[in-house]
Amino acid sequence: MDIAALNSTKILRKHVLKWMCLFFGLLSFIFAVFNLSKNHFYIVAGLEVCFSALCFYIFIQLVKNKQRNWYAITVCMTVTLVILCGTFLAPLKNGLFLWAFSLPILYYLLLGRKYGIVLSATLLVMQSSVLLYKLPSPYFSSFNLALNLLFIYIIIWVISHVFEGNRAEFSKRLKNLALLDPLTGAGNRLSMSHYFEVEIKDKSQLYLFLIDLDHFKQINDEYGHDVGDKVLVELATLFRITFAKGYVFRVGGEEFSLMGNFDSAQSALAMAENLRQAVATKYIEANGITINLTASVGVVKYQQQNLAELIAQADKQLYKAKDAGRNAVFSDINLCADAA
Asked: What's the pTM value of the predicted model, to 2 decimals?
């Protein structure tokens, strides 16, 4: 599975923003020319020219794959300003105020539910204030017309809110299905790759712990897989509690990988020893049976390797622990060099 697919919301919003900027840029430029040559609304035309230039600039940056967090919020705020100012300055018969109905969709598409509800509510208050200020007007002489326009806006807002909420929820569920081990709730291999490649920005103090449960196959063979599954769930929880500042991944049947940042090699090795002792002193009740087992741990520090190389290095240390009789921690970390 492509790791980038896990950021589908971000990618979707980028594409929506890019093509919306192109559309708004062209449309705003056309309106600016029309308002200059025909309507002589110079202030509105000036705003539209500025908005068009902004849209074209952001479109070009997105084509170059240069995305900034402020692009979406700036587009939303600017188009809102243009519509509010246009509604205030231009005659209502021009119908510029009708563009406000599209803005809740834009807010939710580009910014999500949290910003969507705030901006939609703010726009409703401000646009209503502008329209009320311009009354009486022959185009709004009917109370029924004003009421219908209000309800149309609210319906569009509610639909946008419900749709974005459901989309975000399903996206979260799909991401969890892709990233979490269904038995233990720990991350899976894809989750580990995503965390290593995307989420960790500074790897200078990153350590990888590879943990294998000693003689775990005997538990499955003697007591059954139900008991074995219970043991795995309990130990995954134990790892998350003990390794609270890092991430826990299940990468094999009875093998776990943990990643975290530590100030020193001594701190990392002390954590590895805590993990080993936590397993050795843990007694798990399952189907009336008390299970106690041990774990072997391999620890390595990130040294500009890719993830596969880092895991292979940790695996070597893990097998050293097994060859030494299991229930041990092994590492190739040079404590003196680390301290220096």
From this structure: 0.71
